[in-house]
Sequence to fold (620 residues):
Amino acid sequence: MPPDKEYLLALKSEMQDFYQQEDKQIDRSRLVREMEQKVTLPAKERLTTLEFRDPSLTDQAFRTTASVGLNFPKFQLWSTPDRQHVAADEREAEHREYWARELFLRAGRQPGMHTFHAMSDGIVADGAGWTKWLWRHKTWEDRMGATIKAREKAAKNPRAPLPLNWQHVDVRAINPVWHGNEIGEVLEVTKRPRWSTLKRWNLGTTEKGNIVPEELGAGRATPFTTLISEVEFIEHWDNTHVTYLIAGENLDDQMSVAIARDSDGSEMSWEHELPRIPYFPAYGLMMNHWRNRKVGWGTIETMRYLVELRSFLFTLIGEVAARDAYPILQEVSTGDLNLQLQGNPKRAAEATLKTWLLRQIYTMPPGKELKPVPMPDLAPSLRALLGIVDEAIAKLETPRFTENIGNLAGAGFALTTVLQEREVRFAPLLFQLGQSLEEQRLFCEDVVRDNIKEKLWVFDSEKSKMWLGIGPQELETPMIGRAVLEPDAATTKLVEQRMLHEREKNGSLGMDQVIQRMGDNPHEVRIARKLHALRQSPIYEQLSNAALLAYLGSGDLEALTIQAEQMIRTGEVPGQRGMVAGGGESIAGQGTTDPGAQAIGNNAGQPGIQEESVAGVVLP
Fold:
């Protein structure tokens, strides 16, 4: 049975309270990353209104996200151990690898960031990247056709919609309910504009501001302008059902809720029929004692306090600079101050209360002058402390590989050091991302096999440039797989490739292992090498040249074929009577003077003499 409104509201309150500390962590990190965190320097202690907000954490997040998402993930699949090295399975694995990659690439297109890049940004900056898969079977069938044949024809269009949609979920909005180590329920709560949301989900508002079905609403009357302009869209998933709920305050400041409705008025609470809850997390930096969390630590969390300290120090240095540029002045006497103020207590009081304004010219009375108030020189101390903070932050930043590869010898200590720096920074993130993506690939295969029950077509933009279709029949064969992420720049990849080739020469790795670790498919590489060798053969070169000459000659392959056959059989160049193909002359009625050409002409079409042809051009 689907949950009711009362249960969902109680669950929302409970989960938001349960994840309160993690939400505060996310909010703090985002304030610093967006450079909205104010420097903690009281206004009464400031000389200026300017403050410095350190952008290094923002740059760190963008650079790390760009590195992790530098290359779109690929998939590697293998047959089960009982079917290793079966040629048909190797071809099917290759087919499914490219199909999965294109499915993720196309299904994740959304306004703003692609889902994969948003997921990478979440794991780097927030500490977790959550995504979900939606099966839009009703919308898909309505747009693509009622029959499988009609949908298959319509699907082979770059603009055709997919039945599966891959979306990023804001970790701040998600509230998973854990049953042991598994997700038992998910509550996703987002804020949306009131009136457009109510209209989208066929709801209205009573005169007291309560949310009700559209036919029971009173419309948008003037008193409604006092309502809060936002409502909460609550999306709840469990193992069997999904429910959409709209919640907002009424005119009495009480919470009013209603289940969303579709275009025919039915409540948006239904059995989803999916193999599992379609939400998938990829965590950032985790600690072994953490359990049942929705977020870990982002890579920027370890340096957040230092960045806030550096912002404070820079702002303080600015205040010291302002103090030195506009020093505090005091009026001093050049003679005996007691004699000058004797019998005039009013002037004595004025001496302690006078305020000196900037950009003013003062004419001092005789015996008076203005002098700066002596202040301690704080700049050296602040610069020393700033240097310590800079050094600490530099150690926490993602390493930048600037080594000269030409000076690295073989697969020795230098290569290992460079690769270890990369692995230390990226390995936890890449492992979590790869694990999540592989889990999502298996989920998509299950949905295609058990729910969609027909081929899902995507265009292979990387290799074959053809449409790839995978359906229940192809997915009957189980395969083992993993997601491959390559965040490395070209320099680092070159280092790793050199190390792998060194190991292959030393016999510690096989060629197939080297190819797999470089992210390629050994079966594809073997075929490509065979094709390359074939293209170097004389017969291929001969046939290729003949086809090219035919194309460049007249473009009329049929006429060119007839002329070639005539030249082979008679030995005469077409259009040049008496001129033989070898450059000599022929005697009318006696054929060619070229014995080789005569032999070819006499034996043409006879058994034992084979003629090769390509693109309609017949060659001896």
In short: The chain has 19 helices and 19 strands. The first strand starts at residue 74 and ends at 79. The longest helix spans residues 413-452.
